[in-house]
Amino acid sequence: METSTIVWIIVIVVAVLLLAAIIGAMASRKKKDRDRAHAGELREDASTKAAGVQQREAEARETDARAREAQAAADRKAAEAERLQADAVDRQGAATDHRDEHDETMRRADEVDPDVDHRHDERADHDPDETPETRRT
């Protein structure tokens, strides 16, 4: 091959490589421009949705505050229920004590009452003239 042919082949190869580099650079620039435009659209879309996001966050905070308030009220009610239950137990114990005292007093009264027939362990405390046959049950 002649030298001029080799030179022409080298020139054509360099021109093709240079053209490919220019086309690649242009394509890269166009892709960057498209990506910038797309990023701008995404940012614009995000900006329009920001108010909705803030509204939802505010609603979530309000709901959380209401939930904490309701939980605090439930805790207060549970504490009140516990206190009332303890009071009821105390009162039941006191009532039982009073019932026991009453029963003991009645038993002692029966022991000293001459109208009570101790053989049958019955009490005739309504009417001294009452007999077991005339007593209502």
Describe this structure in words.
With 137 residues, this protein is mostly helical. It is built from one helix and no strands. It has one helix at residues 3-112. The longest helix is centred in the middle third of the chain and has 110 residues, at 3-112. The chain is rod-shaped and about 155 Å long. The termini are far apart. The model has no long low-confidence stretch (mean pLDDT 88).
Query: What does the largest sheet look like?
Result: none
Count up the helices.
1
Tell me the number of strands: 0
Helix content bin: over 70%
Judged by helices, strands and strand pairing, the structural class is mainly alpha
Order of helices and strands: H
Amino- and carboxy-terminal Cα gap: 145 Å
Unreliable residue stretches: none
